[in-house]
Specification:
Layout: H1 2-23, H2 26-39, H3 44-68, H4 72-80, H5 84-115, H6 122-137, H7 142-164, H8 171-179, H9 188-196, H10 201-210, H11 216-241, H12 250-261, H13 263-296, H14 300-319, H15 325-349, H16 364-391
Helix pairs in contact: 1-7, 1-11, 1-13, 2-9, 2-11, 3-8, 3-9, 3-10, 3-11, 3-15, 4-5, 4-13, 5-6, 5-13, 5-14, 5-15, 6-13, 6-14, 7-11, 7-13, 10-13, 12-13, 13-14, 15-16
Length: 392
């Protein structure tokens, strides 16, 4: 019975690890490594907060869907009446645009990981990565796909943990920096980046979409350890950044780790970078298709074209080695506006007695925590908008 119970628990963690796979991408690797390079371990607390916030929001989104039997899109249409359809369309457009823009970065990040090990032509590597993503996305059963991605996340985590753990010299200081906030000079944008790369709006629709059919207990047993594992991986990446010297680049990071740990250090970093990119290559189109399904009520054929379009868009930008700055900028603005709105919608839903039974409603402490997260998402949104307008 214990073996069976462990197997079921592991299966649930693997299933929900798709959330970790979605937020740990090349952008996360870069942001966490830069934080470690420039500020040591002093900003670990920002990752602790972001992981807690991610769990609170993801659990609330899944609880609403499982408790009401309705998708987030259906709930928004119901809540907003005639305007609900237009709100859903605008949100879907912003999220799908963001997924398509970030898919290029995902493919280029995975290419960078492979290029650290093999100096083949980047166009060929891009095509192979795109083909691998296409094959995985063709899997019709969500549970199978999520568990495959979960295994890849474990490989990713193993790589970065093996790189970072042997270098830990002061565990007490790591614990202190993980729990007590500090704000070193010129760290505000990095803190916002650490939180913003973890809490993303399309993940809420991704989690809501894949969780249907589970019980509340099964969802909670899987989602908490899966997100915690993702947080530990992010912290390991940040710690690996403290080992670097000079300007940050993937090549520099691999060479520094090779000098400190031998050949295996650079190889494990390359594997971790590839894993971060490739899992996000799959989850970004998957999130876009589930968002379209829940917000736009698309047919299976239409949903299929959504993820194919996102994958193809990212692949084209990857093949051309082109950074779609205007599209990414538009996506940042959209996400900056979407996350506070979605967080507020979640807050209202988890306190709605017409939508959820009494035992599934938020407690007072949950509401206080969710309001704090809402405030942070608003500040992040304002910060992202200001940065976007400065670039313009």
């Amino acid at each position: 019975m214990k073996t069976l119970s462990f197997s079921r628990g592991l299966s649930r963690v693997l299933f929900w690890s798709v959330i970790s796979a979605a937020f740990i991408g090349p952008g996360t690797v870069t942001t966490c490594a830069l934080a470690g390079l420039n500020f040591g371990t002093s900003l670990l607390w920002a990752l602790s907060f972001s992981i807690l916030a991610t769990y609170v929001l993801q659990e609330a989104a899944a609880r609403i869907t499982l408790g009401s039997g309705k998708s987030l899109g259906e709930i928004m249409i119901m809540r907003h009446g005639k305007n609900g359809l237009w709100i859903s369309r605008l949100m879907a457009g912003g999220i799908i645009l963001g997924c398509a823009a970030y898919e290029a970065g995902n493919i280029l990040g995975a290419v960078s990981g492979i290029s650290l090990l093999w100096s083949g032509p980047t166009w060929l590597i891009s095509l192979l990565i795109g083909l691998g993503g296409f094959i995985l996305l063709q899997i019709r059963t969500i549970s199978v796909l999520t568990k495959v991605l979960g295994l890849l996340v474990f490989v990713l985590g193993f790589s970065f943990l093996i790189v970072s753990l042997p270098q830990v010299q002061n565990p007490a200081q790591l614990l202190q920096h993980s729990l007590i906030p500090s704000f070193p000079p010129e760290s505000a944008l990095v803190i916002a980046g650490l939180i913003g790369t973890t809490i993303v709006p399309y993940n809420l629709f991704l989690g809501s979409g894949i969780g249907q059919g589970q019980t509340i207990r099964e969802m909670r047993q899987g989602i908490f350890p899966a997100i915690l594992i993702g947080g530990i991986i992010s912290m390991a990446i940040l710690f690996s950044g403290t080992l670097m010297e000079g300007a940050f680049s993937f090549q520099n990071a691999a060479s520094v780790l090779t000098r400190k740990m031998g050949t295996w250090g650079g190889i494990l970093y390359a594997v971790g970078l590839f894993g971060a990119g490739f899992t996000s290559v799959v989850t970004a189109p998957l999130a876009a298709s589930l968002t379209a399904k829940t917000l736009l009520a698309t047919t299976p054929a239409q949903t299929s074209w959504v993820w194919k379009g996102v994958l193809a868009t990212g692949l084209v930008f990857g093949l051309l080695a082109f950074k779609p700055i205007p599209v990414i900028l538009a996506a940042q603005i959209a996400n900056a506006l979407l996350l506070p709105f979605v967080s507020w919608q979640l807050f209202r839903c988890v306190n709605d007695t017409k939508l959820l039974s009494t035992e599934l409603l938020n407690t007072r402490s949950q509401n206080l925590l969710l309001l704090l997260i809402l405030l942070v998402t608003i500040l992040l949104g304002v910060n992202s908008l200001l940065k976007a307008f400065q670039i313009l």
